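Extended Data, record MFS general substrate transporter
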Amino acid sequence: MSLQTAALNRPWLSAPESAPSVLVVPKEDAPVLRPDEKSTGSEESPGETNTHDNTEFKEGGYGWVVVFSVLLINAHTWGLNSSYAVFLAYYLRSGTIEGSSPLGFAFVGGLSISIALLVSPFATWCIGRFGTAFSLRIGVVFEAVSFIGASFSTHIWHLLLSQGLCFGLGLGFCFTSSVGVVSQWFNKRRSFANSVATCGSGFGGLTYSLATNAMISNLGLAWAFRILAILAFVVNGACSLILRDRNKAVGTVHIPFHKDLFKHLQVWLFIGWGFFSLLGYVIVVFSLTDYAQSVGFSASQGSLAAAIFNLSQGIGRPLIGLASDRFGRINVAAIGTLIAGLAAYFLWTFTGAHFPGLIVYALFGGFAGIIWPCVAPVGAEVVGLQLLPSALSIYWLVLVLPATFAEVIALRLKTSGAGAYLNVQAFTGTMYIAAFMSLWLLRSWKLQQLELLGLDDKTITEDNNVCGAGPIPAATRPSGRLRAYLHGMAVIRKV
């Protein structure tokens, strides 16, 4: 393996005045090795040498079992969370919850996501200390308990504790335990495998958006929650028995808060993409059903629009994954984010008041939620597989703010009348455009690294382990780096 390829495989090779060095990692947390070293100690046994030697990993086999299990987990975590749009529309119109207000209900939905992200550093630590399966089972229990508790809720603070806080804890442990596992089993088809796994949230959202509305209408709110609790516990519990990771083989570093990552511009651009994307995504997911009813459609039509939105994610994410592996992971993530912004500006704004137009906009849901199938593959391009769990731990922590306040912002921007959601639609589109700009700047950085290392498209295609940042030669002047950066914004290349 060439030194250049090895450099790219070592995530945080910097460029000091003398010689390249690595990001300093505490000894007990599996240090990242220099390019000339041949093995990586695992976090679970820091004194031992694992089997990872940078040779190409043979894909397939049990990896597809892992993909299927993560797909089911996503369907019964994020998919169930998507059904909150149906619950929200019911809460806003039924008046069954005492001491409630639209802002209170918005906080319930936002709190579930923000708690899931907020708990991710602790969940990351648990994975490194107790293992993936144990951490996943913690989430399974919390999620089931949350729905049981919500079934007895009569006041808004009951919902905040159950459907908000407790469900968020369950979602956070399940998601953090499973989000980085698929990437460990794939290389050439990494984006496709991740997309297949994440499409579970789309199909789960489709299923449970329709099922929740039917269960509330026929069985009542309490039994709808209890049925969902049983389904989530059985399915997620079974998945925890078959899910396997390759943390030891990969040499994964599970540091909950790796502050040195903040020193790199590319990490901030990566976080910026997620921050703005999540603001737009949460608003669309939680507002679509209420928007449909606010313009005169029935509850069933609103539920159908939400279901179509989730269906588009379920079908679209594998296609996004295939395109990412073919045309470049950062390229596809950026273009998809741009499409999501344009769709919010033009389709949702100008055609959403007509039911066929709203359905057409819902079909673009795969682009609206493009962060989920692309976050792990793009993160691996930025930091490498070894530091991906640590980077994602920080990533989810930063995204707590948009997750908490996105729907609150939407309800504050909402007015009255036929154009009640006009400000919300404009804000959503603007957030996606800002996310696109962050990712396009990140793409320029990646191209700059490849150019300075002298790697062409053929080299990258032949060595699929290439990921992460390479060293910037010290002799390169700032003006040269700036020109390379600006040039990268316009060049057409697989990244």
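Summary. Residues 1-55, 458-478 have pLDDT under 50 and may be disordered.
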